[in-house]
Design goal:
Number of helices: 13
Low-confidence stretches: none
Helix content: 10-25%
Number of strands: 39
Mean pLDDT: 97
Radius of gyration: 26 Å
Strand content: 25-35%
Distance between the termini: 51 Å
CATH architecture of the largest domain: Distorted Sandwich
Largest sheet: 10 strands, antiparallel
Number of domains: 3
Structural class: alpha+beta
Shape: globular
CATH superfamily of the largest domain: alpha-galactosidase from lactobacil brevis
CATH topology of the largest domain: Beta-galactosidase, Chain A, domain 5
Amino acid sequence: MKTIGEYCFGDMLVTYVTNEAGQVGMTLIPAALKDQVLQKDWALQSLAEVHFRGEPLPNAYANGQSLAGTRSTAGMLFRRQWQEENRILTEMSDAQGRKIIHTLSWQPGSEALRCSTCFENGSDRPVTLDLLTSLNLGQITPFTPGDACGALSVYRARSNWSAEGRFICESAEELSLEPSWARHGYRVEKFGQIGSMPVRHFFPFLAVQDSCARVTWAFQLACPSSWQFEIRRKDDGMTVSAGLADGDYGHWSKTLQPGERLTSPEAYCTVSTEDADRTAQRLLSIHREQWYRKNDPLPVIFNEYCATWGNPSHENLSRIISCLKGKDIDYLVIDAGWYLKEGTGWSDCSGDWIPSKALFPQGIDAIAREITDAGMKPGLWFEPETCACQSDLFGREDLLLKRDGAVLDTDNRRFLDLRKPEAQAYLDERVIGLLKDNGFSYVKIDYNDCIGVGCDDPDGLGEGLRRNMLGTLDFFRRMKERVPGLMIENCSSGGHRLEPSLLAVSDIASFSDAHECVEIPIIAAALHRLMLPGQSQIWAVMRKSDSLRRIGYSLINTYLGVMCLSGDIADLSAEQWKAVDESIRFYREVQEIIRDGVSSFFGSGLRSWRHPRGWQAVLRTLGRRSLLVAHAFDFEGSSLSVRIPVGGAQVERIFRTEELPVSVENGELNLTFTAPFQAIALELRQN
């Protein structure tokens, strides 16, 4: 192989190489380990994988598992490479003039790289793509000899409703990713998500660790529609690719006429000499670059959903407002039900977005003014991309998505066709117009069902889905443009849309629908590896029947992200309210650490999230300051003692609702829980 370019981005080194055939690939390693790279038995992996319909499919038993490794990719040969400021562009093309431009970019100070692939049909005839990757990185690992037996581990993040972001680790051997004795026969581990809830099964995330060399690679994909990762192996090198779900997996294809272009979703990649937990957080430096409110203080939000359960009448809200007036609350959000139609249930009539005259006889603007007069900013819930069975929109088939000619209906949800200007205009009127005309400065955008594999489109179901979800991103951007200062919350039955492209057009996001569950801190902590905690809105639902221990447990959960209060707030006792006020003061003091810090994880190794046993602690550090958030779950015996390394730090301040023994000795914080389901938060400062 011949080196054609070498670039250092912070502590990462990217090297571009070609082989005798003229293909081009790249390697990504820690710059400090350049001299430790080994020569191994592996083939070059192209910067991008592509497959053109009608050309030969992959051999070596890969057909049906993967569309990578075909003649379509092999024909893409290196033409030129150039640099534009912090971007490296590499052009490849084949004998027919079909062209790929691969872009790798970096922002100074970032700990990760962004890459994408642009395909241009430079031939004289239409070309149908069945595969176009955003990322294709081979030669993992160049630091451990041979096939790195026993050294390679793969990390993924599983996700389900109210159980988002569970990290799992499997060895290459467990995934059957060892090369065969003859170096024949592709080993393929393919996973992803199909539909419009992009973290419904897995997060679009992957990390690979070489435990012998202590090097970890991590990857993330910014895609709101169907996506896939592939881990492939045939020789000493493991290859990771990511991009749109292909023709086999996601029913995706795209026909491009001569001169037309298509650019893939962006992928993020990084490498470090740290563990998977820390390396995953390096990817979040790109999230921070794109975050509109990265320098703003974190807000305190009250969402009334767990107080009224879909009955946010003027009367109910006025009672809540009078209770919150004078409290240190930034936003009061009116959740589902404000559009109720007489004779229906609130979950059956969403879509028309006309405020209920029965619930708001003075108009919804009156309650918005009342919230503002009480010193808070008003917010409103929508589920704008769908409609339910009792809405007028449900019958507007001209505005709705179809599959096989029939309206796409999930038994009480139909979906707006956001490829159509008429559908976008409907949202401009019913959503953006209502927000502007009534003085709302916060919007919660929910999304409670999935389109599935796709919708009718000349290029097929997967391309229909991709284009529709690009319409969603456009709608989010337009809300921000047309309502100055608008705070946008990204919600999808809680956390089904916690992927980078949707987070980039949102200010914060609902972490989960685990409103009152004991596993809230487990989910919230897991998400530190996958999204910025400053964008992760955590529920603290308080009941008048809650003990102070339970109140403290709920409030301390929110220090793992953005504080969102709910529940029986108007019925809390003076003692309970004292705890809430103190927790808000503590949150205000440590919010910079939550927003800008880096997390380390400690605990007893949780197996069940629903029935957790043992303990968990997250230590989030920013410079000389740290925030420790610790929770005890169920345990045996009368107490549970834990030790957490904190170096030379000393306790600066504590929030707790009952006394817990705490001390710092010999660089360790010693903490004793005296009962199950207790919590404590401490700010620490280095001497």
